[in-house]
Write a structure and sequence with these properties.
By secondary structure, this protein is of the alpha+beta class. It has 4 helices and 5 strands. The strands form 2 sheets. The protein has a 3-stranded antiparallel β-sheet. A two-stranded parallel ribbon has the order 4-5.
Length: 122
């Protein structure tokens, strides 16, 4: 798990697009820029994605078999660049517009993230 710690929030975003993501053994996520487990679960839920917090990980479940897509909403990235990017990717699967509070934090690791994302979904 240590080799994937930084990528887990983006992997969790796959749940918005019909995936199921279960993470265990990732308690290190609790001591990053934010408590990434708590922040991730709260943000995914705010976007309408089923998510549950675990002591050392999380479960995120997106729509399957034609189930309703995430509704969209307002997710707080808590000034954490990885949360902001994960929520932006998850929001692409939502039925309604979404807002990512603290999205400007992406400049920490990927200043052109939103421009790249726009090009990819165009």
């Amino acid at each position: 798990m240590p080799g994937l710690i930084d990528e887990l929030p983006a992997i969790a975003a796959l749940a918005a697009h019909g995936g199921r993501v279960v993470v265990r053994g990732a308690s290190e996520l609790r001591v990053k820029e934010s408590d990434r487990i708590a922040a991730l679960v709260a943000g995914l839920r705010a976007l309408g994605i089923d998510a549950d917090e675990r002591a050392d990980g999380f479960l995120a479940q997106g729509p399957a078999g034609g189930a309703r897509r995430p509704r969209g909403g307002v997710a707080d990235a808590q000034r954490d660049h990885r949360m902001a990017m994960a929520f932006a990717i998850a929001a692409l699967g939502a039925d309604a517009p979404s807002t990512i509070e603290g999205a400007d934090s992406v400049v920490i690791s990927y200043p052109g993230f939103f421009e790249t994302l726009d090009r990819l979904v165009a």
